[in-house]
């Protein structure tokens, strides 16, 4: 009698259950880890909340939808960052569920599970999902856009036009890369006969109207802010350096797929035992159009995103690695064939689990052990709640008014702006970035100015004293980080600007 592992049987019989289990477990890991081991939110999440609190139609940080949703989730959780962490994981769950629906429509349910498992190693490894923002929100919208595009082009389901237009409109309100993502979809449609036939109907005109209605407020803001002009093309003298940067970004995306390559090698015949009778995951034949669709969206977003990043000297792939590499797992499954044997199952499970859990382990080690081995400050170790509570209470005791605004060091000020009173954030070094508050208005309504103190007297930096004449520093406040380790105690200089 043959023996087949329970995992393989579940993949064959209950593929949707397997997807939900692995997605929910991964989301639970990234939900609990920051709640337990982070003293402050990662990256620029605090700034996203500060900008979202103002409900601006547009800012220099990009379209407004992710900022608005972050503020709504933050308020719904009682002004606690748990709501934003939960929203980020909801986006991850929606991404992989929509991706599974697409994979199931192309390669069937069982092999769709394999595509989700492979893509999960790439997306989780290349861009962890704790730091909610435009890059995180764009992932489920991109997955839904691909799903509805395939329903239109590959399955001729005209009812999907409305959902497709909603996806495009929300993408335009989420990320500056949305127009490029939509153009990739339109480009594929124009390049195929079925796609051109789909575009000849009347439905695309109604879809365009829906997209315009959704994106119109942001478009009006772009026109008024005079930021519709394209970035300047770099001079010939720097094109070589930009080409090298393109190669670096593209190489980073390729490295992010290392887990998929390793799993494919370990599952190949090279490492198989001769007498091994491996279980096989079947699928119906994949049409040439479906193969073209999968390969195009597996390679085009990565190449285009890295090229734009290299051309304009961006730090990461334009649109995010989670968008650029989402289809990589499905591309490997389609390229493997109609029959996929699962050899050395225990080793494959171990390697997959390590690839998914490694980013969480690295984040945990950075939070708990890096302070003991390095003097470099871990950004998530700052005590955001304690700082916000202290400065809010101090300001209220001194002025008998609630804290309305905070300025000074952008990182510290953003964390204080997360306090339960939600004071406004003023970026005094670049006040045009925070149009809801200016330095004269700040001096009139009052607030707290903070900085990292370099001495026990709490002397403010010269540029800060110049922007706020007559600043009287208070005794610096000492805060303990989540783990101090070898680092000195955090010393924050501060001063109160009394309301007029």
UniProtKB/TrEMBL annotation:
InterPro entries noted in UniProt: LipidA_mod_glycosyltrf_83, RgtA/B/C-like
Q: Which residues cross the membrane?
A: 17-37, 82-102, 114-142, 162-192, 204-223, 243-266, 293-312, 318-340, 352-372
Record has Zinc-finger as a keyword: no
Q: What is its EC number?
A: 2.4.-.-
Q: Name one GO cellular component term.
A: plasma membrane
Q: This protein's superkingdom?
A: Bacteria
* Major localization class: membrane
Q: Boundaries of each Glycosyltransferase RgtA/B/C/D-like domain copy?
A: 63-221
Q: Which UniProt keywords apply?
A: Cell membrane, Glycosyltransferase, Membrane, Transferase, Transmembrane, Transmembrane helix
This protein's membrane topology, according to the annotation, is:
Multi-pass membrane protein
Q: For this chain's UniProt record, which GO biological process terms are given?
A: lipopolysaccharide biosynthetic process
Task: Cite a single Pfam family from the UniProt record.
Answer: PMT_2
* Compartments reported by the entry: Cell membrane
Recall the GO molecular function terms of this protein's record.
pentosyltransferase activity
Q: What is this protein called?
A: Glycosyltransferase family 39 protein
């Amino acid at each position: 009698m043959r023996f087949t592992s329970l995992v393989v049987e579940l993949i064959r019989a209950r593929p949707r259950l397997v997807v939900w289990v692995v997605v929910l477990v991964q989301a639970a890991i990234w939900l609990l880890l920051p709640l337990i081991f982070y003293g402050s939110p990662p990256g620029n999440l605090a700034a996203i909340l500060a900008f979202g609190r103002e409900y601006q139609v547009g800012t220099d940080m990009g379209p407004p939808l992710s900022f608005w949703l972050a503020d709504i989730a933050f308020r719904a959780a009682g002004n606690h960052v748990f709501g934003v962490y939960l929203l980020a994981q909801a986006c991850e769950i929606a991404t992989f569920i929509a991706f599974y629906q697409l994979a199931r429509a192309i390669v069937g349910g069982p092999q769709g599970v394999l595509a989700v498992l492979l893509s999960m190693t790439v997306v989780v490894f290349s861009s962890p999902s704790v730091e909610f923002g435009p890059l995180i929100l764009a992932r489920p919208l991109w997955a839904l856009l691909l799903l509805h595009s395939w329903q239109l082009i590959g399955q001729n389901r005209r009812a999907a036009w409305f959902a497709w237009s909603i996806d495009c409109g929300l993408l335009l309100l989420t990320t500056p890369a949305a127009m490029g993502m939509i153009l990739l979809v339109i480009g594929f449609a124009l390049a195929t006969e079925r796609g051109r036939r789909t575009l000849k109907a009347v439905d695309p005109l109604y879809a365009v109207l829906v997209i315009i209605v959704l994106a119109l407020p942001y478009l009006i803001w772009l026109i008024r802010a005079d930021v519709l002009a394209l970035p300047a093309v770099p001079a010939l003298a720097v094109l070589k350096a930009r080409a090298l940067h393109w190669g670096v970004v593209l190489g980073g995306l390729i490295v992010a797929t290392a887990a998929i390559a390793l799993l494919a090698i370990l599952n190949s015949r090279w490492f198989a035992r001769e007498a091994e009778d491996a279980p096989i995951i079947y699928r119906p034949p994949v049409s040439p159009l479906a193969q073209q669709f999968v390969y195009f969206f597996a390679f085009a977003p990565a190449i285009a995103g890295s090229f734009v990043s290299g051309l304009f000297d961006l730090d990461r792939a334009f649109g995010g690695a989670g968008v650029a590499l989402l289809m990589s797992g499905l591309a490997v499954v389609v390229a493997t064939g109609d029959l996929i044997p699962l050899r050395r199952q225990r080793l494959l499970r171990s390697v997959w689990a390590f690839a998914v859990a490694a980013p969480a382990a690295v984040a945990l080690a950075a939070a708990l052990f890096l302070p003991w081995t390095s003097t470099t400050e871990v950004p998530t170790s700052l005590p955001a709640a304690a700082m916000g509570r202290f400065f809010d209470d101090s300001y209220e005791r001194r002025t008998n008014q609630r804290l309305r605004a905070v300025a000074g060091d952008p990182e510290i000020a953003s964390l204080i702006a997360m306090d339960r009173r939600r004071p406004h954030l003023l970026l005094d070094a670049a006040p045009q970035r925070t149009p809801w508050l200016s330095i004269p208005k700040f001096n009139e309504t009052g607030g707290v100015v903070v900085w990292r103190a370099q001495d026990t007297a709490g002397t403010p930096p010269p540029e800060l004293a110049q922007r706020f004449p007559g600043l009287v520093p208070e005794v610096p406040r000492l805060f303990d980080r989540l783990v101090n380790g070898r680092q000195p105690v955090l010393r924050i200089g501060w001063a109160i600007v009394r309301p007029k």
